[in-house]
Amino acid sequence: MKPEDLRSHRWFGGGELRDFSHRARARQLGLNPEEHLGKPLIAILNTWSGINPCHMHLRERAEQVARGVWQAGGFPVEFPVATLSETYQKPTPMLYRNLLAMETEEVLRSYPVDGAVLLGGCDKTTPALLMGAASADLPALFVPAGPMLRGHWRGTTLGSGTDMWKYWDDRRAGLLGDRELAELESGLARSPGTCMTMGTASTMTAAVEAMGLTLPGAAAIPAVDSAHHRLAAASGRRIVEMVASGLTLSKILTAATYVDAVTTVVALGGSTNAVIHLIAMAGRSGIPLGLDDFDRVARRVPVLADVRPGGRYLMEDFYYAGGVPGLLSRLAGAGLLHTDRVVATGRTLGEELADALVHDDDVIRPAANPVAAEGGLAVLRGNLAPDGAVIKHIAAEPHLLRHTGPAVVFDGYADLKHRIDDPALPVTERSVLVLRDAGPLGGPGMPEYGMLPIPARLLAEGVRDMVRVSDARMSGTSYGACVLHVAPESYVGGPLALVRDGDPITLDVPARALTLDVDDAELARRRAAWRPPAPRHERGYGALYAAHITQADRGCDFDFLARAGANPEPDPR
Ligand code: FES
Ligand code: MG
Q1: How many angstroms separate the alpha carbon of residue 96 from the centre of ligand 2?
Q2: Ligand number with the minimum distance to the CA of 475
Q3: d(C-alpha 277, C-alpha 258), whole Å
Q4: Which range, of 156-165, 321-330, 403-412, averages the lowest pLDDT?
């Protein structure tokens, strides 16, 4: 590519007043002309923050990306962008996913950027960065933050998230003392990096690797491994080549790419959050992807990764076993991937997988000996979820997958917290726990409340799973017979708003059905009496969000971002 063909040339390369000004300001940045003029400007979008433990190493990694960019003849510029810390940001970073997506798109659009390296990995960060980058449609390469090392406590391996829930239930059941709890606090998350179970973070970074938006093998490299430093530098070198060859995201993101992403999520036994994020990402690519695509893929793709919470191992084991290339080679061998599509290396997926190996058949199973023949995900419909709901049934107790029980209804999370452990709550292990007002608008932000806690009285009796139904999401590290993403949500008058205590609810996963066993006339009477709740936010970002957010089955993007239409390039002069 000639320097005058670069997008940044329009800022720096001409003879007009603005070019003169931009060059003068580059001198102010401390740069000599020969250091940057005519070179592709690579934006390094960094989601580092002092409050984001999953990204705490990304300052250093940005330097390593920059090293690679310089080596390949590019000009690296770091841009700090919003940090979405799954742990600390409330009510949930999901409220802000689209904000980071907008920031990503607009940074790339408004500055003299030729290509971008995107640094992140904690849950919503990955879809946010890629939604924005897909809309901007420049060459872009993702560098996943990488999972943390295995957790450890008294000789036991701990999974972040998953074991937090498990040990907290033990605590509530009176089985753990203060000392044990303090030790667990030090052992659950013991290095920088994203959750090392197959939570939303690793599900999304692995899906994005399968899509061909990272260098091969990137997603499973532990955050603190020296290989992660080398990945960063190699990504810096590669993005310069991607700019030279004009390999924009839209050349990688085809309909087949998204189907392969769904296939990968299912084979990983991945997080249900991926359903929402991949639908939203596909929307930015102008590719229709819906809930039924997930159900169709999940019926034919086996779960091959034996990683918690659906399986036994952790991401560090998955890395040693061959990582995403190992998994993809198994899927490709079973004819389940589109191997002729181009990936970020400029080669085809099939070419990249030709040398991929699996080193441990326990962790990455052969297709003939899967963790589960199906069961990664199922999409349910019925009069309780006319626009669909999702369940990850490998993470549930099998006897609950066909179940009818009386509803115990909670109106929002505060009500749930207030009453769930009340000894007088009329609940048995056959009850169906229902949480409403926890959807995209009602939550707001669709918080991860979907794994409703088991009432303490039942926990003490040894009950560890019950059918739960909500319009919320669930953490990828959670488990249980939790029906999630019920659409439309109760806040907008979905049928969930009409459920009353004692109503029979039937979950039938084999039939893909979720039914409220109340007759239509009674439901119509209840609907006539229903009044919409007050707005959650009347000003600020929350009000913008409420005016434009779509429901879960459409990916919870903003309606004005998920559509085609004129959005002109700025004229820098
Ligand atoms: Fe960041 Fe789990 S909290 S990935
Ligand atoms: Mg999570």
Answers
A1: 15
A2: 2
A3: 11
A4: 156-165
- Please state, in angstroms and rounded to a whole number, the distance separating the CA atoms of residues 526 and 549: 26
109-151 pLDDT, tens per residue? 999 999 999 999 999 999 999 999 999 999 999 999 999 999 9
Q: How many other C-beta atoms can be found within 10 angstroms of the C-beta atom of residue 408?
A: 24
**pTM summary value:** 0.97
Residue nearest to atom 3 of ligand 1 (CA): 86
**413 and 449 in contact (C-beta within 8 Å)?**
yes
Alpha carbons 212 and 229: distance in angstroms, whole number:
20
Which ligand 1 atom is the nearest neighbour of the CA of 201? 4
Interface predicted TM-score of the whole assembly (ipTM), two decimals: 0.93
Q: What is the 3-state secondary structure (H, E, C) of 150-199?
A: CEEECCEEECCCHHHHHHHHHHHCCCCCHHHHHHHHHHCCCCCCECCCCC
- Confidence band for 172, pLDDT divided at 50, 70 and 90: confident
Q: Which atom, in ligand 1's list, is nearest to the CA of 475? A: 2
Ligand 1, residues at Cβ distance < 6 Å = 54, 86-87, 122-123, 194-195, 199, 201
Note the pLDDT tens digit of each residue in 62-90: 999 999 999 999 999 999 999 999 999 99
What would the pLDDT profile of 317-357 be if each residue is shown by its tens digit?
999 999 999 999 999 999 999 999 999 999 999 999 999 99
Please give the distance, rounded to the nearest whole angstrom, from the Cα atom of residue 254 to the centre of ligand 1.
Answer: 28
Compute φ and ψ for 88, nearest 5 degrees. -105, -25
Task: Evaluate whether 212 touches 343 at the Cβ level (below 8 Å).
Answer: yes
